[in-house]
């Protein structure tokens, strides 16, 4: 029996070594020579593999064991690296196009439960009042504990017009919340706009998708040539645009090249937007306001259709704790180049880049390959963008409490702040503030306090320009 186990162990080491070599080849070919395989550690892996195969209470097939091993390797690196099976890989490709099925929640994992990072605007989750930081502990009658994140996500997704019951634990709420949500085809309208007052426009980006840059151009052109309105005397008026609010609140991010394109819409050509730094040569690069860095393929540059004034018009950017990743790239670039005033609250702090590396059988791994930095060299990871003007959600100084990158288990540290020893401590909150129930803010409404402050800032900007 011992010899058989030993033989099987050697076979398993060979199998695992082969898997690792093929992974290394597909992910890192022409980058750097592969390192020597850690055979002692692989022997331990093989021992565990054999123990499961020989003694686990039920028969487990090899594919399932290897898949779980790969998934475990990636999920224990950081909150954003993951193994994508064929279904998850396909869903990721559909998601970036802006349409997918489900509830509309950005989620992660914490202590074995699904943790809500952010509900997506205009989705069943958003309308049901699900909040950042909520813990989903049960899906229908099935406890989440013991599920992988991908398994939980698959259960939440399903055919449109079917229902699912979520049991949610929320901070400072004594009893679990039981919510019934109906699944929908989630069509994320990534760009919205309107004239908030004559001469002042509002442009909202809810997610950075494949067509977001082209959509932003269409909306900006509409704002610059607004429909005629009637004044109090009955005369038709058509005021030129004198100021613009770019709203990135609750925008969880998306595609890097889309963020570069949106930044390029407001910055002079060839201006640095963001840089990335990682271990491989192709992870070390700078992205600039140039078609080569925001276009994919040989498509026509949508920014050629922008009015020239867009690069000089007074601009205020709204951010909050739900502004993450690509949103922070845009806010950081516009802030560093003093192109816009950033207004709101501290952003999420996701300053890492994930590369999707396709594998065989239509699967892939999503691997964190670099950190990104603003044009001045600031690292956003686990810190975020600090607004130029801090404005809370309400007039009395209250805001919703957001889950942030620094709150996630195994998050990457901010390498710049570690070197300098200047990590920003979290502000203390008194109990009364934490327990206060803040009504949901309807963005771009008359009661949107942060937007009203941004509009006041733009009007003051006009007065200063005239002096």
From TrEMBL:
Coiled-coil annotation reads none
The segment annotated Disordered runs over 413-434
Concerning SMART domains, the annotation shows: PDZ (SM00228), TSPc (SM00245)
Instruction: Identify the keywords attached in UniProt to this record, alphabetized.
Output: Hydrolase, Protease, Serine protease
Q: Tell me which EC number(s) this protein carries.
A: 3.4.21.102
A single GO molecular-function term is: serine-type endopeptidase activity
Say if the entry is tagged with keyword Hydrolase.
Answer: yes
Listed SUPFAM superfamilies: ClpP/crotonase (SSF52096), PDZ domain-like (SSF50156)
Q: Name one GO cellular component term.
A: outer membrane-bounded periplasmic space
> Which terms under GO biological process does the entry name?
proteolysis; signal transduction
- This protein's species is Sterolibacterium denitrificans
Mind telling me what this protein is named?
Carboxy-terminal-processing protease
The UniProt entry, under PROSITE patterns, shows:
PDZ (PS50106)
Ranges for the PDZ domain? Answer: 89-171
Per the similarity annotation, which family is this? Belongs to the peptidase S41A family.
Gene3D superfamilies registered for this protein in UniProt? 2-enoyl-CoA Hydratase, Chain A, domain 1 (3.90.226.10), 2.30.42.10, 3.30.750.44
Listed Pfam families: CtpB_N-like (PF22694), PDZ_2 (PF13180), Peptidase_S41 (PF03572)
The encoding gene is ctpA
